[in-house]
Structure formats: C-alpha cells, structure tokens
Amino acid sequence: MPKKAYLKSHLSELEIKTRYLQTRDRVESRRWHLLWLVSQKWTIKEAAKALGFNYDYAKDIVKNYNQQGPNAILNRRKTRKFYPSHALLTLEQQEQLRIALKNPPRDQETWTGPKVAEWIAKTIGRDRVSPQRGWEYMKRCSSNS
Q: Which of these, 2, 62, 64, 132, could form a disulfide with 72 (CB 3.0-4.6 Å)?
C-alpha cells in the first residue's frame, strides 16, 4: 500500500474544502481540490490522476503548501507585472511603436505580427524577432493608444 502524503495543519480539512469550493480562480480551485483529496487520505498519485495533474506537479503543490502554507496555492499569474523582465522594448521604444502603428506600414497595407516583429528587430538590432512577440507588442501598444 502506498504511503499517504502528509499535510501540515495550516488549515483544517473543512477550511481546505471550503477554499476548493469557493475559490473562483480555476487554477487555485484545482490546487485546493488536490489538497482536499490528500487531506481525505488519498495518495498524491491517486489525487493527481483523478484531477488530471502530472504527478510531479501535484507533489510540488503539496510540498509548497507544507513549506509556505495557503499562500503557496495562489495563482501567481494574476499578480505578475504586465511587462515581463525580458521585455524586448524599453518604454521609450514602445512609445515609438505606438506612433508607428498609427501610420500604415511600409507596404501600405495593415500591421501584422510579423511586420511588427520586423520593426522591433530593426529597432533593437536583432536579426529576427518571433512573429508571436510582434503580435503581442502590436496588441499591447494598440490597446494602450
């Protein structure tokens, strides 16, 4: 018989179940659900399989909860800054892109992700920038106009 996982008593079983049922964020809710199942004497492997989690991911959730408590369950994606630390353009360059997007591109058609990526590559001195990144900057800069 597999060893049952240990959960530190940061919260009672009822509090864990309540958070699982009441949390609106889907990522957090599924994490709480995993912890609730583990608190019900399920193995991590059984709970992970029931929820469609990778075993290692489920094990990390339990480990982080034991080490950090309820804060470990938060969905960090909601609290990230809009501009990642690996931003391609400075704020000044983003402003230049906003201005450029107000005019038609060189081919006089419409701006697209690849065209914005080409503009970014020339601006920052790279050979190539992914069209996806171009699209992301196009959306970001045109929505902030």
A: 64
**8 A C-beta contact, residue 73 and residue 56:** no
Q: Are 16 and 30 in contact (CB under 8 A)?
A: no
Do 66 and 7 touch, CB atoms closer than 8 A?
yes
Average pLDDT, the chain: 90
Please name which of 1, 97, 76 lies closest in space to residue 31, comparing C-alpha atoms: 76
- Give the chain as a DSSP string: -PPPPP--TTS-HHHHHHHHHH---HHHHHHHHHHHHHHTT--HHHHHHHHT--HHHHHHHHHHHHHHGGGGGS-GGGGS-SS-TT-SS-HHHHHHHHHHHTS--TTSS---HHHHHHHHHHHHT-S---HHHHHHHHHHHHHT-
C-alpha to C-alpha distance for 100 and 124, rounded to whole angstroms: 15
Q: Residue 83: pLDDT above 60?
A: no
Indicate the range of 29-33, 86-90, 95-99 predicted with least confidence.
86-90
